[in-house]
Amino acid sequence: MRELRPQREPPAAWPVALLAGSVLLVVGFLLWAVLSPAPPGGERMDPLAGALVIAGLLLASGIGTWTLINAPRRLDYRLRGRTLFVTTLLGRRVVPLSRIVGAELTSFELTTMPGAHAGWLNSHMPGYYVGRFPLSGLKRTQVAVGVRKGRGLLLRFASGDPLLLAPRDPEALLKLLQERGDLQG
Q: Is the pLDDT of residue 100 over 80?
């Protein structure tokens, strides 16, 4: 098995810090609401309901933090025999080399503004861009890259959207695909 590591952006601490800060703020507010004396003529928040809300919030923030930290690490490309495997946070795409009809080196810059996407199931955070993104000259492109802009390899298929990958050495991946598949490049 040959491993072709994707290009990666340096990790950003701000998403995790923002998530942790907002969770601490909400947990603090809920603790205050549960433990503070009731206002005159009012009722205090039920301690059990407050505890359940805090537990749910901590669970959701733990899942969110795990996602922010692990999504970029899970992105991977592997070439085994005549099959290319593209691993993302939630799954693996299997691409038989026989399906690829063309491959070209390209420079890209992803548009990550809200409303600029070509699909609903896009995921983008620092170091992890997966889903359908518009690229210049192409209406929709499947993307699995670890950088917002750079050099990559665009794989074209007889049917379906092209796939953009951004390994550290796109030329080496193109050469491997040409050696193992029937690509003309």
A: yes
